[in-house]
Amino acid sequence: FYCAYEGWSILDTIYFATVTLMTVGYGDISPRDAISKTFTCVFAFLAVGIIATALGILMGALMDAEALKKLQVEQESLKDRAGWIAVRSVFLIATILGF
Q: Taking the complete model, does pTM exceed 0.70, yes or no?
């Protein structure tokens, strides 16, 4: 859009989009016309929303992975305890029965 409408180079367009997307806003280049400014506002809101959603999904996945790892450790611990309870029960029954 900026290449065609504002006459910016590809590098300037990518630079401006990146600065806007990362919410830095140096102000060294900016749109001149009302149409470009409107497009930039829409672009900025959508881009920030997309980045926030992507980061939210990523963080949710990382938290789910950590919770799954913790659950697996607890499950292994329960298996170990269940094994010891079974062994102790067999010895207790054998003791009671006199074996």
A: no
